[in-house]
Amino acid sequence: QVQLVESGGDVVQPGGSLRLSCSASGFTLDSDTIGWFRQVPGKEREGVSAITKNGNTFYRDSLKGRFAISRDNVKNTVYLQMNDLKAEDTAVYYCATTLSVVRQSWFQWKLYKNWGQGTQVTVSS
To answer: Are 48 and 63 within 8 A, CB to CB?
Structure first.
């Protein structure tokens, strides 16, 4: 009943851009904190960005300025704009929800309960 679907992943060259989408069904995204995470095989997933129900945003320090998270409440969709992509951005990107999160712990993936299936982003020359 509760479902998240990511889309927008692709193969791009370094310096390129992508916009990922996270569409929700069964609940409204504006009632939760929505996080974007990424994972490389063999490594623990890491927080990319998050947006709270109040519109507060958080970013991984190394990604600030290149990535931007936004929410469209009418479409019940959260976006992740990714600019100036680098090879190290290659990963499977997931969106997830949690009822609440404090500023200091937004990036802790174990706090999130609902997850999408992920979308592959590959940055290669």
So the answer is: yes
